Amino acid sequence: MPNLKDHYFNLKNLAVIVTLLLLFGCASMQTPQGGPKDTKPPKVLSMTPKNQTRNFNAKKIVIEFDEYFNLKDEFKEFSISPDQEKVPELKKRQKRLEIILKDSLEKNTTYTLNFGKSIADVNEGNVVKNLSYVFSTGPDIDSLSISGKVINSLSDEPEKEVTVFILPVERDTIFGKKRPSIYTTTDSAGTYKLSNLRKGTYKVYAIKESTGGGDKIYQQISDEVGFIKEPIVIDKNLENINLQIFKELPPEFRVLDRKLNNDGSISIIFNQQLKRPKITVTDPPAVDIGKYVHFTKNNDTAKIWLNDMSFDSVKVAVEDQGKLLQTLNFTRGKKDTYTREITVSDNLTGGKLNPFQQLTLTSSFPITAADPTKITLLEDSVKRTNFELVKDSTDFLKYYIKYPWKNKKNYDLKLGAGAFTAIFNAKNKDLTKRFTLESQDAYTTLILNVTVPDTSKRYVVQFLNEKKDVIKSFPVSKNSKITFSKYPAGKYMLRVIYDENKNGIWDTGNVKEGYQPEKVWYLKALMDLKPNWEREDPLVIPPPTQ
Prior knowledge:
The structure is a single chain. This protein has five domains: 40-141, Immunoglobulin-like; 142-247, Immunoglobulin-like (Sandwich); 255-331, Immunoglobulin-like; 344-438, Immunoglobulin-like, CATH 2.60.40; 443-540, Sandwich (Immunoglobulin-like), CATH 2.60.40.1120. By secondary structure, the chain is mainly beta. The N and C termini lie far apart (111 Å). The chain is elongated and about 95 Å long. Strand 21 and strand 22 form a beta hairpin. 5% of the residues lie in helices and 43% in strands. Strands 11, 12, 14, 15 and 16 form a five-stranded antiparallel beta sheet that branches. Strands 26-35-33-29-30 form a five-stranded mixed beta sheet, with no helix packed on it. Strands 1-2-6-5 form a four-stranded antiparallel beta sheet, with no helix packed on it.
């Protein structure tokens, strides 16, 4: 006879198992993880008292958001205009922000609270941009505004995240420690608008702060700046008040970096491009004999190799145009050792040699001797001996390999150990460079018939690549023809500099002196220059915009 009790328990256990499976099954039905990243900042739900309140007499303002938020850098970012001696206090209360006014308010005055970038959501840090709160202690609210656009003076591109501010002329000083209270930031199109302004005369500035900035105080060393030279009278809504930002040249010479390298060379980086630089070891003077000095193309960096490294310390003088700029001290320990190994770079691009250039070899050390018998040239695996090894006449780091290179040939240039000898008897290791000659058909020519707007002025016509790097510059002072030839086919852009001081380069502006950067004009449409092609185009330079 079946055991009814066991049967009952089996059914009961089965029911428990089914129930647990259902529970776990339901528990596993979760919301899918991931999804699009939250890019929206907190949204304002309410303001108490309401924004734009007239006859304001409250001591506290409450702003409620739709999500939790953080306050960051509020001492840098938050401001009230007009200024108050006792700065309002900001307190975070869950999804509410309380602003406690701790100072008395002037009668019949419009106040603007600007929060800058101080409010951001908790999870992703999305910032509430250009949030402001406006109230008036009288029956009227100041309603004037000023708007415009900020562009980069050299690239001619709009600049986002730039702080635009105005200062009453009676306290106009951008070179101070007090940040502005009336400001805004530009959007992605470079546009800005300052609202709720009172009638008055102001100076207008723009600052693009370097990474790590954010205090809205102009740091000449690191920040970019723009300004309107003449004060602006705001007695109506003003539009198209545009600014160009630029990086000022440092007013005084300074060494940015200096070090005695582990190979025994000395590196010095300047904050300016020097015109006629000179380096001299002044103490001990004997160490100056036989030194090697190499400046970069822009004369803003120097590298020095000394033949005599027996010193404990040396004094190195930096001069420009015959004027002593600074004397630097370098010390070394008598037991210091240096690693000297010659590395050799070249002018190949993607394993191809420009057919209009010779193969250039650049050493990391001043070369004192070269042995062509330790250099082997193979053309399609066949040894060739009719090449020349030629030393550069002015650059002690460069040598050229001259040879009648041929298309559709594979080349192997083998530099045997000791092919180059540098100071301190440093030598190169075995090195092989493999390349082919680029076909001349891959290159292009463009002839421009240039018409200038004013023959008493000077201009610089520049060819730029798609990244706006300068490829070639042509100074122009009259209607003439310029030829851009023997350059790789591709897309190029034209830029014209209105060279006011006729020095052949673009010059930046200066806030204290009150002059703007030299103007530029872009033919922004990319020119697609085809390979093995020659074309001729007109270039009519327009007068500079006022």
